[in-house]
Write the C-alpha cells for this entry.
Amino acid sequence: MKAKVLINGYGSIGKRVADAVSAQKDMEVIGVTKTKPDFDAKLATELGYKLYCAIPDKERVKAFEEAGIPIEGTILDVIEEADIVVDGAPKKVGKENLEKIYKPNKVKAILQGGEKAKDVEDNFNALWSYERCYGKSYVRVVSCNTTGLCRILYALKDFGIKKARVVLVRRGADPNDDKTGPINAIKPNPVTVPSHHGPDVVSVVPELKDKIITSAVIVPTTLMHQHTLMVEVESEVKREDILEKINETPRIILVREKEGFSSTAKIIEFARDLGRKRYDLPELCVWEESVNTLGNEIFLMQAVHQESIVVPENIDCIRAMLEMEDDKFKSIEKTNKALNLIK
Ligand code: NAD
C-alpha cells in the first residue's frame, strides 16, 4: 500500500513536494491545502489534487465556493487519513501547525527550514541523518542553504574536517516573490558573524559544532544562492581526491565554466533546456574550476537552487519517518530515479 501524504501549504515548496510525491511508486498525495482561492489553488485542482482549505474557518471555505474553486473540505476533514503531513506553510506558521494541528491529531509531520531546530525531534538531510530520523514523528528538513552545505560537507567528511569557513551569497527573492529584496544593494544578512547557517548545519551534523563558521549577504538575484567554502582537513589533500569524492556523492554535480556554466544564470538556463518543470535543479552544483587545495586546505564554490534542493530530501524524509526503506542510499536512488535527477 502506498504511503498517504498530505501537503499543508501548496506554495513554492509545497507544490514541488506534491509533484515529487506523485512521481514515486510507494507514496501518494491524498490532498493539498490552500488558505485562499488563488491561481495556485485552481491549478492544483486542474492537476488532479484534492484541495482542502488549510484553515478550518467558515469564511475561508465560503471564499473558495464564491471563487468557484471546488474544495473537499478543510484540513480537519482529511488529516485522519494521512500517514504523514508535509508542511509547506510560511516560516513560523509550520510550528503553529505542529502544535495546533499535527500533535493533537497524532499525525507525523515534516516541517521546513523556516522553522527552528529546537521545535522538532530531529533535523533531516538524507546523507547525514536518515538513520537518526528513522521512525521519528516530527522532523524538520533543513533549509536550502543548509542542505547545500550538508551535501558538500558529506563529500568532504572522509578527509576529517577540522574547520569549515563559508561565505554565503543569498538570493534576494524567489521568482514569484513581489515583496522582498533588496533590489539595489548588497545586504549583510544577518549582519552578525557567525550567521545562523553554521548552527543549522550542526543541527544535522553535531560533530561539526565549533568547527563551522558562516557569514552571509543577500544580493539582488532570484535564481540561486552561491557559497564559497574554505575547509581545513586533517592532512594534506589533492584536488583530484576532492573531485572524486564529489563525483561519488549523490545529488552533487560538477559544472564547468569552460562549458559555459559561467554564472547562476547559465546554470538555470541548463535546467530550462533539460525541460525541468519550473526549471528546477535539485542537484547541488559545484564549479569544477573552483575546486583547489593548498596543503590541508580545500577551496570551492557552489550554487544552490533554493526552491528545489530540499524537494528530494522531503521524499527521503517521508521514507525514513514512515520506516519504508531502511537503507538511505536505496531511498536516495529511488527518489532520484523517479525525479530523473542527473545523479
Ligand atoms: P510560500 O510563501 O511560497 O508558500 C507558503 C504556502 O503556505 C502558501 O501557499 C500559503 O498560502 C500557505 N499558507 C499560509 N498560511 C498557512 C497555514 N496556516 N497553513 C497552511 N498553509 C498556509 O513559502 P515557501 O517558500 O514554499 O516556504 C515554505 C517553507 O519552506 C518555509 O519554512 C521556508 O523557509 C522553507 N523553504 C523555502 C525555500 C524557498 O526557497 N522558497 C527553500 C527551502 C525551504
Q: What stands out?
A: Residues 8-14, 33-35, 54-55, 88-91, 93-94, 97, 112-115, 143-144, 174, 306-307, 310 surround nicotinamide-adenine-dinucleotide (CB under 6 Å).
